[in-house]
Amino acid sequence: xxxxQHILLAVDFSNDTDFVINKTGDIASxxxxxxxxxxxLDNIPMPDTSYGTxxxxxxxxxxxxxxxxxxxxxxxGDRLNVPENQRWLIWGSPxxxxxxxxxxxxxxxxxxxxxxxxxxxxxxxxxxxxxLHHAPCDVLAVRLPNE
Length: 147
Known about the structure:
Layout: E1 6-10, H1 17-31, E2 34-41, H2 64-79, E3 87-91, H3 94-104, E4 109-113, H4 119-122, H5 124-134, E5 138-142
Parallel strand pairs: 1-2, 1-4, 2-3, 4-5
Helix pairs in contact: 3-5
């Protein structure tokens, strides 16, 4: 069996994110894979920017919501020892951006949670299905514990 080399964890910052983070850490540890993380900003209006849809994590944010999203992503990145250049905060459609990033970064496993309440998770039924059918690699949908 081939082991995974590069895992992309797609997070939505729901209450169940810790469960998915732990699973990702376990899988990466077992296969000695590199981890990248992505959060898609589909719930914050995108300003007219000259730098595109990828948000630099080291830039100061004027928007309080954007600042919180950056802090959340960096907290997870620090917890999983993900280098800053492998932490992605992107405006757009979750299904499109996750698949595009996976292709761009030569990801061989995408990990997503299977339910939640906002952002990526709100759309996850259709997002997970679209990611599964359009991803250039394997997709693992982690079933989250019931409340």
